[in-house]
Amino acid sequence: MYLAEVNLWNFRKYGIEGDSFETAKPGLSVPFSEGLNVLIGENDSGKTAIVDAIRYTLLTQSGEWIRLEESDFYAEGEKRAQNLKIECVFRGFSHQEAGCFLEWIGTEEIDGERLFVFKIRLTARIKGDRIMTDIRAGADPVGISMDGDARSLLRVTYLKPLRDADAELTPGRRSRFAQILKAHSLFQNGEAKKHDLETIFEGANKAIEDYFCPKEDNSGASKLMEVLKTYVDAFFPQNELHTASVSISGGDLTDILKRLSLSLDTNPSGLGAANLLFMATEFLLLQSEETYGLKLALIEELEAHLHPQAQLRLIRYLEGKSTKGQYILTTHSTTMGSSVPLESLILCKGNMVFPLASQYTKLQPKNYDFLYRFLDATKANLFFARGVLLVEGDAENLLIPTIAKVIDRPLHRYGVSIVNVGSTAFLHFVRIFQRQNDALMGIKVALITDMDVKPLEWSSTSTEEEIEKAKASRKQSLEDFENDEVKVFLSPNWTLEYEISISLFQTEFYRALLWAEKLSNSQSGIPQESKAGEVDAKVNADLGKWRECWSNNTRKNEKIAFEIYQNMMLGKEISKAVTAQVFAAHLEERLSGQDACVLKSEIQAAKSLKYILNAIYHVTEPKEVAREN
Predict the structure, then answer these.
(1) From its phi and psi, is residue 522 left (phi > 0), alpha (psi between -120 and 50) or beta?
(2) What's the alpha-carbon Rg for the chain, to the nearest Å?
(3) How confident is the model at residue 252 (pLDDT cuts 50, 70, 90)?
(4) Could you give the dihedral angle defined by the CA atoms of residues 621, 622, 626 and 629, in that order, rounded to the nearest 10 degrees?
(5) Mean pLDDT for the chain?
(6) Nearest-10 crossing angle of helices 506-521, 530-549
(7) Domain assignment of residue 360, yes or no
(8) Are residues 114 and 239 in the same domain?
(9) Selection from 170-184, 229-243, 290-304, 427-441 with the highest mean pLDDT
């Protein structure tokens, strides 16, 4: 059996769909798969609310005290809902498992087959200053009250965020280690026979008593006890005889288990090591073949106190064990986001969730294969973003954040992630944001790509008509990428470098290109100071020559841009990434200087760069309603 679905009515940030609570559809439905499920998304996206809804309804193995608060009821403005409901739906029962819930279980038809289904509901209402709760289960909407042994079989393993592993493993009345051992079949021999630990404890207790018992040879603690006896005799009346003895109190199995501690080494463990040990201990019970009931673990912020490599080892382990239990995790980690199979991710965004399994997205098997290979930790930023810029190379990745700052759209302020696809294989990434039911995810996506149509200067046989036809074909090939949130922003001519070279930043970009060449050729990585003069001289000489040569040519700028990009950058194999880095640094310098406003006006006036600006506006906010920062 596994938790297949959670439905929420008026719980936390999730309201209802409809006017009447009794007939309304849930404000949120979350489908889960068997095995591994990972809730991923930015802060306050609802991950904890979903986990809390499950543990409030099913309770936890640790027996923690759980109580609904007024703040758990959905609020809109100053008005707070007076009723809430949480429904957990289970499927995948074996006959043995179904037998434990005969009074409440039902059936449903799926693909022509009758299968078991079990629904348990927590309802609550505010009555005066009290919150009244009720737990019922059953196939019909009303259900039958549920308590006792059957409900205890639904308890989940829960690991809270920023868990204090040391405290959980330390001996004491609330020791989680003791609770786990007590629930294991090894420590459930029944009352007819003493447990081996009780026998061992008895022997130890007798040895301790003997150590403190008075002896003729004064061995052990005899002298100490004799001195103690003189005080006791003096403090009590003459006719009251008392004999002090030393023993370990509490000798039954439960008391013994509460005295046990678990540690890795003699020296205290760090937070990460203690966290791993604590999780390993929880899995003793969760994955035991001898325990009955639901095998479900809720783990909030799996990455807590763990470095990336430890996160990877843990997630790979859970993947391997997912056939023996169900895991519902939450994460803020890009390492986790890039390591977990995409099919296991459930993206939380706004007041909705978006499972990324194949039945919900337009991702094809080849897309999953590609993303499994190339979706690394830097690209996994897209799971936490409010907007996404997909670019095809290092130059765009380096330059666009700076351009965004120039036009008062710093990407970090808008929660925008820039993802360097590293090729034109955009479709694999775009389909993450395209749903089977065409629902919108509330994430603006801008796909920035090159037109990649060579200009007239490339070939003497080219015609303007052929070039325009090639551009139209290129635009048409990208139409399938778009919906109301996903938009394509195409360079007007060739590549980003060519578009900058054709703009009013021609001189500055050419200087950055030549300086990038000096950087690449310098053995130390820092060119000599004299090289700056050489670069300036060459910039002035080359541009002066080209501008004079084509002064009367209507395609003067295009011809100069072709010289800069094709003959200089590509011809001399000067790095696009290094050039972009140098040019971005130059823009940053101007931005921090006296002509920041001039720079902004120049960027906005550069027609060949409009596609970059429009992409930034799309994922941040429209130009006409932008805030001035």
Answers:
(1) beta
(2) 34
(3) confident
(4) 50
(5) 89
(6) 140
(7) no
(8) no
(9) 427-441
Based on the domain organization, do 405 and 537 belong to the same domain? yes
| 499-509 average pLDDT score | 97
The structure tokens listed for 106 are: 């039902």
Prediction pTM value: 0.86
Structure tokens at 579: 């050039």
Do residue 160 and residue 182 come from a single domain? Answer: no
- Residue 570 is classified by DSSP as I
Residue keyed to tokens 């970009």: 509
Task: Name residue 562's amino acid.
Answer: F
Report d(CA 342, CA 376) in Å as an integer: 12
* Domain presence at residue 348: no
For residue 295, is it within any domain? yes
CA–CA distance, 418 with 394 (Å, rounded to integer): 11
Quick one: tokens of 98?
């179904």
State the Cα–Cα distance between residues 446 and 419, nearest whole angstrom: 10
Give the end of a domain, one of 343, 367, 399: 343
* CB 469, CB 544: distance < 8 Å: no
Same domain, 54 and 138: yes
pLDDT tens digits, 123-149? 999 998 899 999 999 988 889 998 888
Range of the domain at 201: 176-258
**Are 311 and 251 found together in one domain?**
no
Q: How many CB atoms lie within 10 A of CB 76?
A: 9
Q: Is 62 helix (H, G, I), strand (E, B) or coil?
A: coil
Cα 487 to Cα 560: distance, rounded to the nearest angstrom: 31
User: In this predicted structure, what is the pLDDT of residue 626?
Assistant: 44
Q: What is the DSSP string of 23-54?
A: TPEESEEEE--SSEEEEE-STTSSHHHHHHHH
Is 349 inside a domain boundary?
Answer: no
CA distance readout (Å), 414 to 102, 408, 485: 52, 11, 16
pLDDT in tens, 217-229: 878 788 888 888 8
Relative to beta strand 352-355, strand 345-349 is antiparallel
The count of structural domains within the chain is: 3
